[in-house]
């Protein structure tokens, strides 16, 4: 954590020069993509055991505080695609969810052609749940914990004075500290050990500047 | 810090593994005619024959695998299919042992067969009234009970050792919203079968009456196993939950654990007190220890093929896992000590 903070502070100092033509102070992003689950929820239980992945919908707001540096806040929601379900109704009821919030810093890289690439770094907290629903009966596993690193490289192509659209690549790495299994019969609290998990994300980012 | 570095390495390894072909743990045993895949369902072990019993579905064979040498011998004569496209709806899919014979159901023809393992030949057959799922021998009554979930019932077939061996239909037992899986507790004269959600029914094998119904904690009920000596009754749910119920105390839940997902047929080693559950969703074999008091604990996890949904245990310290996609079974050495 200290290393991440040191990098953030150092980068803010190093990137003190404001890019030419950059006047807007507020950036709002909305993105949609796919998230690949990696790592474990707890000992013997992998994040990808019950889901093929998530469909993250991210909303990000950045306030520019230096020419190439902004403060960032984000919220993300991702329906998790279920691996186990037998009918359309069961599958719809079996979608899991990954919810995450984060704060951090945005670094704007020097523009190249019409691409204004940036790197987002943040920390936060996440809540994950997977469900299997069979003919109206459901069982849910959920877990929550801190995000150590939420990193994203995006390369939006400027399409207008206030609008850019482009791909992004990112990862969110964290651990779960609390867990719960809710069966039709009982609820069990707790996790067996602390493991590391990650979501590798790729998608499209729409950026609006003001 | 070292632990955190270790976690980071593990995530990197997972990324690398995704880029490589996924490999199963254990030793694979190729089965005759299984090159295009086999629609396995049931998997058993015969302590008297010292063979893993593998109904090999559309290959038309019941395969017997030596757990030490891995040699395969086959009994032919069951229905064959020319190709495998997933599922387990063809040919021989369930087996049980009793009275020196093997009893095999054939889903294609809807037939129950009695097999002489010494002669490797079918010695008797009878048509069933509905599509069979699992067959289990009931020693107390000299019957075969066959789960027929399509008709929501268990069919009962009488058995006479002969000669000639005779199989005679004797009636049915209705199990609404089931039966999924079927296990016989020979020591206590009980049979257990799931309803598809939430509960397990307990039947008296002599009266054929439902004597109890126990909530099992499953959203989607699948596998069953029992430790007759300890009266521990094991329930596996498709969602990855495993529970131990106290069969001596009206099915009271002793413990629940959730690992992996996509479980179906589970195995149990009563000498090690280890439970084996293979899951399609996780592509894993989860090994759990069961304490004397019925507490489940995770011992380990192995990678298996993502088509693997059935497991059994032999008495040589191995777990066995089916691999429908590749027409194999896998022997996995259980490295864990006896659970007390």
pLDDT < 50 stretches of chain B: 15-21
Task: Specify Rg of chain A, calculated over alpha carbons.
Answer: 19 Å
Secondary-structure-derived class of chain A: mainly beta
Derived from helix and strand composition plus strand pairing, the structural class of chain B reads: mainly beta
Instruction: Kindly report the spatial arrangement of strands forming the biggest sheet of chain B.
Output: 1-28-27-26
| Measured distance between first and last alpha carbons of chain A | 32 Å
| Strand line-up of the largest beta sheet of chain A | 1-4-5-6-7-8-10-13
Q: What's the oligomerization state? A: heterodimer
Number of separate strands of chain A: 13
State the major sheet of chain A. 8 strands, antiparallel, barrel
What is the number of helical segments of chain B per DSSP (H or I, 4+ residues)? 1
Please count the beta strands of chain B (DSSP E, at least 2 residues each).
Answer: 28
Query: Helix content range of the residues of chain B, please?
Result: under 10%
Number of helices of chain A: 2
Strand content of chain A: over 45%
What's the mean pLDDT score of chain B? 93
Beta-strand percent range of chain B: over 45%
What's the main sheet of chain B like? 4 strands, antiparallel
Largest inter-chain contact set? A-B, 36 and 38 residues
Note the gap between the termini of chain B. 34 Å
């Amino acid at each position: 954590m200290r290393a991440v903070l040191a990098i953030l502070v150092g980068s803010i100092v190093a990137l003190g020069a404001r890019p030419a033509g950059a006047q807007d102070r507020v950036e709002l992003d909305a993105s949609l993509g796919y998230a690949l689950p990696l790592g474990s929820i707890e000992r013997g239980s992998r994040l990808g055991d019950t889901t093929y992945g998530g469909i993250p919908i991210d909303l990000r707001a950045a306030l520019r505080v230096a020419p190439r540096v902004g403060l960032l806040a984000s919220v993300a929601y991702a329906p998790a695609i279920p691996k186990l379900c037998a009918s359309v109704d069961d599958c719809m009821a079996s979608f899991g969810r990954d919810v995450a919030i984060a704060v951090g810093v945005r670094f704007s890289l020097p523009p190249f052609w019409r691409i204004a690439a940036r790197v987002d770094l943040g920390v936060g907290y996440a809540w994950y749940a997977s469900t299997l629903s069979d003919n109206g009966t459901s069982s849910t596993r959920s877990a929550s914990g801190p995000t150590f690193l939420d990193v994203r490289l995006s390369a939006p192509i400027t399409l207008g004075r206030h609008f850019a659209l482009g791909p992004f690549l990112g990862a969110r790495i964290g651990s779960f500290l609390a867990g719960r299994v809710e069966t039709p019969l009982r609820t069990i609290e707790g996790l067996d050990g602390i493991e590391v998990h990650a979501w590798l994300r790729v998608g499209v980012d729409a950026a609006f500047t003001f | 810090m070292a632990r955190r570095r270790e976690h980071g390495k593990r995530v990197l390894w997972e990324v690398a593994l995704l880029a490589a072909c996924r490999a199963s743990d254990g030793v694979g045993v190729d089965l005759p005619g299984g090159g295009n895949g086999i629609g396995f369902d049931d998997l058993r072990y015969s302590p008297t024959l010292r063979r893993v019993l593998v109904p090999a579905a559309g290959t038309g064979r019941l395969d017997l695998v030596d757990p030490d040498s891995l040699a395969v011998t086959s009994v032919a004569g069951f229905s064959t299919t020319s190709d495998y496209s997933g599922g387990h709806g063809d040919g021989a899919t369930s087996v049980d042992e009793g009275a020196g014979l093997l009893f095999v159901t054939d889903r294609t023809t809807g037939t129950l067969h009695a097999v002489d393992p010494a002669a490797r030949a079918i010695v008797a057959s009878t048509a069933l009234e509905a599509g069979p799922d699992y067959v289990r021998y009931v020693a107390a009554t000299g019957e075969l009970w066959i789960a027929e979930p399509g008709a929501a019932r268990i069919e009962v077939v009488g058995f006479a050792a002969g000669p000639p061996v005779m199989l005679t239909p004797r009636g049915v037992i209705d199990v609404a919203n089931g039966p999924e899986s079927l296990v016989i507790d020979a020591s206590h004269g009980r049979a257990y079968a799931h309803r598809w959600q939430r509960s397990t029914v307990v039947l008296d094998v002599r009266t054929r009456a439902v004597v109890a119904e126990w909530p099992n904690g499953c959203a989607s009920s699948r596998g069953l196993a029992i430790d007759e000596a300890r009266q521990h009754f094991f329930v596996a749910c498709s969602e990855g939950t495993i529970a131990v119920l106290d069969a001596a105390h009206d099915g009271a839940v002793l413990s629940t654990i959730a690992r992996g997902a996509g479980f179906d047929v589970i195995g149990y080693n009563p000498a090690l007190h280890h439970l084996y559950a293979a899951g399609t969703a996780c592509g894993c074999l989860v090994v759990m220890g069961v304490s004397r008091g019925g507490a489940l604990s995770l011992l380990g996890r192995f990678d298996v093929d993502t088509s693997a949904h059935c497991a059994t245990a032999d008495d040589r310290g191995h777990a066995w896992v089916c691999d429908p996609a590749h027409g194999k079974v896998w022997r996995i050495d259980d490295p864990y000590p006896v659970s007390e």
